[in-house]
Amino acid sequence: MDLVGILYHSRKDEARTLASEVHVWLEAQGVAAWNARGYDGEAQEKLLRERMPDTSMLIVLGGDGSTLRAARQAAPFAVPIFGINMGRVGFLSEAHPDNWQARLQRVLEGKYWLEQRLMLRASLERNKEEIAQFVALNDIVVGRGTKARVLRLHLYVDGNLVTTYTADALIVATPTGSTAYAMAAGGPLLPPRLLNFLVVPVAPHLSLDRSVILHEEAVVAIEVEMDHEATVAADGHSTTPLQNHDRVLVGKHEDQTCFVRVGSPSYFYHRLMERLGFWHPKGLD
After folding, report:
1. Ranges in the chain, pLDDT < 50
2. Is 2 a catalytic residue?
3. CA spacing 20 to 30 A to 69: which of 94, 135, 137, 272?
C-alpha cells in the first residue's frame, strides 16, 4: 500500500474523528495517507479525481450510502474500497469502529482478497436524443413522482418488447442492489459476485408480478407512459424528471467496484442473516 485515501461522512463528527485516528495509525505503520470529506460539492469531487490515480486503497467511513458514492469515484481508477460502517446497516462494509484496527492490520499483512462487483450504466433518451447519463452500483429506478398514481412501463430487453407493467416503479438492480430496494419490493437475493442483473416491479397492478433475471450483456430499455410525474434515479440520488415516452436504457458498466475483504469468501450469506436480525455468526467472519 503506497498511498491510502480516507473518505469520511461529512455530517458525522464521529466519522471525522475516526478518520484522523485511522490516518495517524496508518502513518505509524509506514503507510502514507490522505483524508477528505465524502461528496461535498464539485470542488471536492475534482480534488478526489486528482487523488485517485495514485491511491492504492480507499477507506470509507460511513454507511452504505457513503460507500455507494465512493464506488462511483473509485471504480474508474480501479481503487479498491475498505468500508468501516458508521451507518445503520453496513451491508457493504468490512469493519466497524470496534475492530477496524485488527482488520486493517490483516490488509497490510496481505491477508485479504478482492471482490469485484457489477455496476450499471444508464442513459435517458428523449425524442431519440440522449440528455442524461447515470452510473449505479445498486440500482436504476424508474418510478412515479409525488402523485400516488401508477405508470405504464414498457420493458424491452435487447430491443424486444417483453411486457408492459402498470406499477409504481421498475427497479433495475445489480446483485449488490438485490439486498436494497429490490429486496424490499420482493425481488430475489443474488450473491454479489454474480454478473447478472434483475428487473423488479414495485406494486404491479394487473400485470406481471415476477422479477426477471438478465445476463450481464443484456440491454434494458424502459419506456414511460404517463400523464403526470415520473422520475429516474441512480442509487437513490441524481433524481431526474421524466416526460411521457422518455426511454431509460440500462446495461453493464465497463467499470466494476472492487472491495477489500478479510473475512470468509462465503461471508455474504451469514452477513445478510446477521443484518436482517435472524442470527449472529460466530467464527465465520
Report:
1. 283-284
2. no
3. 272
State the residue for C-alpha cell 482488520. 103
- Number of separate domains in the chain: 2
The answer to whether residues 171 and 139 touch, using CB atoms and an 8 Å cutoff, is yes
> What is the model's pLDDT at position 186?
95
Per the structure, the complete domain to which residue 108 belongs is given by 3-112+262-275
Residue 40's pLDDT is 61
| 43/193 Cα distance (integer angstroms) | 34
Residue-level length of the chain = 285
Q: Where are the beta strands (DSSP E) in the chain?
A: 3-8, 32-37, 57-62, 81-85, 113-126, 129-136, 139-144, 151-157, 160-167, 169-173, 197-202, 212-214, 220-225, 230-234, 237-241, 247-261
Q: Which of 2, 54, 64, 235 is catalytic?
A: 64
- Residue 77 one-letter amino acid: F
Residue 283 inside a domain? The answer is no
Residue 98 CA to residue 91 CA, distance in Å, equals: 17
SS3 180: coil
Instruction: Please give the pLDDT value at position 43.
Output: 65
Residue 171 located in a structural domain: yes
Instruction: Name the residue among 94, 95, 104, 97 with its Cα closest to residue 28.
Output: 104
The bridge status of strand 129-136 relative to strand 113-126 is: antiparallel
Residue 186 is placed in which grid cell? 420482493
Q: Report in angstroms the alpha-carbon separations of 66 from 26, 77, 175.
A: 21, 18, 18
On whether residue 284 sits in a domain, the answer given is no
How far apart, in whole angstroms, are the C-alpha atoms of residue 151 and residue 169? 7
